[in-house]
Amino acid sequence: MLGKCMENVRTRVPLVHNITNYVTVNDVANVLLACGGSPIMSDEPEDVEEITSICGGLNINIGTLNKRSIEGMFAAGKKANELNHVVLLDPVGAGASSLRTNTAVKIMEEIRLNVIRGNISEIKTLALGSSTTKGVDADVADAVTEENLDAMISFVREFSERTGSIVAVTGAIDLVSDGKVCYVIRNGRPEMSKITGTGCQLSGMMTAFLVANPENQTEAAAAAVCAMGLAGEIGWSRMQEGDGNSTYRNRIIDAIFHMDGETLEKGANYEVR
Amino acid sequence: MLGKCMENVRTRVPLVHNITNYVTVNDVANVLLACGGSPIMSDEPEDVEEITSICGGLNINIGTLNKRSIEGMFAAGKKANELNHVVLLDPVGAGASSLRTNTAVKIMEEIRLNVIRGNISEIKTLALGSSTTKGVDADVADAVTEENLDAMISFVREFSERTGSIVAVTGAIDLVSDGKVCYVIRNGRPEMSKITGTGCQLSGMMTAFLVANPENQTEAAAAAVCAMGLAGEIGWSRMQEGDGNSTYRNRIIDAIFHMDGETLEKGANYEVR
Amino acid sequence: MLGKCMENVRTRVPLVHNITNYVTVNDVANVLLACGGSPIMSDEPEDVEEITSICGGLNINIGTLNKRSIEGMFAAGKKANELNHVVLLDPVGAGASSLRTNTAVKIMEEIRLNVIRGNISEIKTLALGSSTTKGVDADVADAVTEENLDAMISFVREFSERTGSIVAVTGAIDLVSDGKVCYVIRNGRPEMSKITGTGCQLSGMMTAFLVANPENQTEAAAAAVCAMGLAGEIGWSRMQEGDGNSTYRNRIIDAIFHMDGETLEKGANYEVR
């Protein structure tokens, strides 16, 4: 029951530690508050271990990484592992530079990750060592489509099996797999790609969903993806003439703010394969 | 006259130097512009002394502190003290980690502060060395309520007397004391806690209010608290069906943008004890 | 044809590398998406060369510079020069501190800049070594007015000729010169100065316009200025009672999102001198 996963977030108010980029960090904080979680941000290596200790989950996003914050990611990640906290990696721009690719790979090697969530170009980079990444957006050549769906499901399932992490690939069609089942999700709107940070927001929110649903992590990850996509649909339906991507950004977070378990349950558009 | 305090901000256009966190910094800048002030941000130790010199006040917020920005906080604070500028400390997350607590305490020891503004958990940490801080939000166990109001007023008044700083504790009921009088303020809406950074915004705006009202600093601090709370009420009254925390954030800043002295005077809900 | 310049952005989807301040970075990203470009942010010296290599242009904004990001600006700028990419400098706060002035001057000396875009106080600082800069906003004593227009045009033209860069000075009247022609632009609204970052947004967008219009760089720079000003007018016309600077910010980006070449062509208010 995806709806129950969302209700658990509202009831349990998970505290999420975010080491994330400075581009979209405000929206990540607001969407965490909107879904019922509580955000805290800290990237200073001397600060992160204590901060992550009082949280339930850690969201690592490498969108504007620097040497200091990379050190913070490893310190926080290791402490979170020690405490058996949920850890999510969002490998923003993996494939676009060596520093990003190598940092993401090293995090995968040294930190036990509950979830890896990215666009298909980023995930391909991590899984295959190559992709056609174009900056921080997925390349169209990499897209998950109805035509290549079966192959993509196998790819994601295998990568999940190999890493031991839930893998969430988001795009026009979203895939969430734990190595066994694979959720195929068709919520969302293409216009969401015209807003910076919907992926970053999803990563923050997904971390909260996993913290609040320790016994149903795969379902919780899928629920977060459905919630974000559904919010994109609800937000779009409230757009008025002249509204553009900036207003749309607000309306999506607003839709998360009002979403309850029943709305999510009814609006989620997915199949389990 | 609280209204006059706000009018002075619009007339005098105080320039405020902010060393603040990257989560809510954009909203801090926009609320400063909305109230009639002018914001500038700088945290590089080599840059802060000159920047603070051309300003009238300094707003230090430790929300995403790092070693470099901590150095900047001390350099800017000492220069601001030298020039007799207004200095405000917002000890975000004091109590949540040693680095945050120790940095806030050291700032209190080494920099003369006109105001310390935080939630009750943060202020208790600084005053008593302990609290039940839960991340960056106040813990419910610490809340100022009608039941414990007298004791809380005494606590805030004593802490103000001991430190020589105006102390502003914000929450469901806000307290502002200079060691003698204590403003008890009941403006605001509970939904404001679902937006990241209303506290940070208040700290930026309060710094501007103090700069523009050098002879009525306590009243200026109380006026800023009332203005923020009243903006929360006005913003909420303009919410339409489906609007959530992201739209509410805009509406609060919008309400500050339109607030004049008369509106503040009429809408302020406070008593002086 | 200014309209054609905008259409080229939408068709060619230029990828722009931004080393910009953390105050307005989210709006820079969203306005780049709104106009049809694609943003990427990176300031870590080890990361910037590869990131800028996959982009078409580089937008350097010194609004919250620090020692690490300054190093990143030079590394990225030199690599971009090597690759003949478009490079724009936004010297935020030049004149307000030595670090800002010196960094901007050194960037001008060591990096070939296609455009320098700032307010009149910042440009005067770079051209004359002095101004009456007040923080990050232009001082009224420096303003371009109908009265001093001829002198200002000469000043901007000469500075452009001397530097070899297109110079764009924005304010109530905007000037864009390549040393030969000078566009005098009268789009925009005074209320835009009550939003943080409209200048930063313009710099990001202007970089995209130049990348998409390699053979008409001066016209592309002017088109970006007209587009931003026109968006300010369209956004303002959509304001409702009670809306303030925060909502206005959204409406301006929304207006860019919907602007096509024809709208820009019709709404642009400029003369070429």
| CATH-defined superfamily of chain A | Ribokinase
**Secondary-structure element pattern of chain A, one letter each:** HEHEHEHEHEHHEEEHHHHE
Percent of residues in helices of chain A comes to 40-55%
- As residue ranges, the low-confidence spans of chain A are none
Taking Cα atoms only, what radius of gyration of chain A do you get, to the nearest Å? 17 Å
DSSP summary, beta strand count of chain A: 9
Q: Please tell me the total number of domains of chain A.
A: 1
Major beta sheet, strand line-up of chain A: 2-1-3-4-5-6-7-8-9
With helices defined by DSSP (H or I, 4 residues minimum), what is the helix count of chain A? Answer: 11
Largest sheet of chain A: 9 strands, mixed
How far is it from the N-terminal to the C-terminal residue of chain A, by CA? Answer: 16 Å
Kindly estimate the percentage of residues of chain A that lie in beta strands according to DSSP: 5-15%
> In the CATH hierarchy, what is the architecture of chain A at level 2?
3-Layer(aba) Sandwich
Task: Characterize the quaternary organization of these chains.
Answer: homotrimer
By helix and strand content of chain A, what is the structural category?
alpha/beta
Reported by name, the CATH topology of chain A is UDP-N-acetylmuramoyl-L-alanine:D-glutamate ligase
Largest interface: A-B, 35 and 33 residues
Mean pLDDT of chain A: 96
Give the overall shape of chain A, derived from the CA principal axes. Answer: globular
**Name of the CATH first level of chain A:** Alpha Beta
